[in-house]
Amino acid sequence: MGLFDLAALIQRGAFPRGLSVCSICQAWPAQAICSACIERFAQPLARCPICALPGFAHPCPSCCASPPAWDQALCAVDYSFPWDACVARLKFTGDSASAADLAHVMQHAPGVEPALEWADAVLPMPLSRERLRERGFNQALELARHLSPGKTIRDALLRIRHTPTQASLPRAERLGNLIGTMVVHPAHANALHRRRVVLIDDVMTTGSSLQTAALALRQVGVQHITAVVFARTDTPPLAPDTVRSSVADNPHHVSHRLGSP
Ligand SMILES: [Zn+2]
Ligand SMILES: [Zn+2]
Hints:
- By secondary structure, the chain is an alpha/beta fold.
- Helices cover 38% and strands 13% of the residues.
- The protein has helices at 3-11, 35-41, 61-65, 83-92, 98-107, 112-118, 129-135, 139-147, 171-178, 186-192, 208-219, 246-249, 251-255; strands at residues 72-78, 121-124, 157-159, 182-184, 196-204, 224-232.
- Strands 1-6-5-2 form a four-stranded parallel β-sheet, sandwiched between helices. A two-stranded antiparallel sheet has the order 3-4.
- The chain is globular.
- The termini are far apart.
- The relative contact order is 0.15.
- Mean pLDDT is 82; it is low at 1-18 and 244-261.
- One zinc ion is lined by residues 22, 24-25, 27, 30, 34, 36-37.
């Protein structure tokens, strides 16, 4: 068996994790993402402390003009080479084991460990039931489990209707598509009152999904919200006042559209 056959076998999971090639540079043997690649591609950047937009040491103009419903966002890497491929592998191939690799990179991003320690609860961004059925797992939940198994609450946030894949929609339509689609599960609402929460997601683009989640959390009195994402595009956040949760307007309507989690 040649070295390349062996590498292919390892990549297909034929050997226990820990003995593998780096998924970025193929160095062997290595951690699933080797420390040389983390050193090379995941250097911390100056980021807006509120929305994690790269290139700002202080709150960016969008956040100054209209701060989002969350308090701070932390991000490990830019959504670009080689991390875009790592995210795609996590999201579309069903390889939830690669969540461990990305969580490892997230854990080393500035501020992430203290935020997780300080949090009372760690909540993954939810998928709709339809998307969960189609994909088989929620990549944000996989990340959360690796980051903070003891504090992760899997179903505290729920999406209350299916929305088309965000990436397939023009930017302006993403917002309308998300309005009123997230709610805190009533079973967790009291426990989250006046608590500190970390929201986990794989990729942040305009921040509109995070905004929808943060509004739902504020609705039940969550005190502090830190968004922790693996990767972020360089898109400035959408003005938060354009993201309005219909939960606020019509709580009864929402609560009876909820099924069991
Ligand atoms: Zn490597
Ligand atoms: Zn900002």
